[in-house]
């Protein structure tokens, strides 16, 4: 009896995530963590809720001053997040 071709554990894990439908949830958590790292704790604590779907990250900001500051740096935030994530996951940042 011969063994089948060996498969790396990382590849098996990726296939498991895709087949189980958990891949989107893992990406969402990665995006939220990248947002918190990029904006820092000062602005992250003003963020009351976050939603991510189809490349759009929507954040509800409780302070108008913090929201205006984040709006001014929106493109920089997107670029830094995508740099941390290693690919172009975030296409648009909506701040409410």
Residues in helices, as a percent range: 55-70%
Largest sheet: 3 strands, mixed
Shape: elongated
Helix/strand order: HHEEHHE
Number of helices: 4
**Strand neighbour order, sheet with most strands:** 1-2-3
Number of strands: 3
What does the average pLDDT come to? Answer: 86
CATH topology: GMP Synthetase, Chain A, domain 3
Q: Tell me the quaternary state.
A: single chain
Number of domains: 1
Amount of beta strand: 15-25%
Structural class: alpha+beta
Name the CATH architecture: 2-Layer Sandwich
Q: For this structure, what is the CATH class?
A: Alpha Beta
Span from first to last CA?
62 Å
Q: Poorly predicted ranges (pLDDT <50, ≥5 residues)?
A: none
What is the radius of gyration computed over CA atoms, rounded to a whole number of angstroms?
17 Å
Task: Please give the structural blueprint.
Elements: H1 9-20, H2 23-44, E1 47-53, E2 56-61, H3 64-72, H4 74-85, E3 92-95
Helix pairs in contact: 2-4
Keywords, please?
GMP Synthetase, Chain A, domain 3, 3 strands, alpha+beta, 96 residues
Characterize the structure shown.
With 96 residues, this protein is of the alpha+beta class. It has a single domain (9-95), classed as 2-Layer Sandwich (GMP Synthetase, Chain A, domain 3), CATH 3.30.300. Helices cover 57% and strands 18% of the residues. It is built from 4 helices and 3 strands, in the order ααββααβ. It has a 3-stranded mixed β-sheet. The longest helix is centred in the middle third of the chain and has 22 residues, at 23-44. The radius of gyration is 17 Å and the shape is elongated. The N and C termini lie far apart (62 Å).
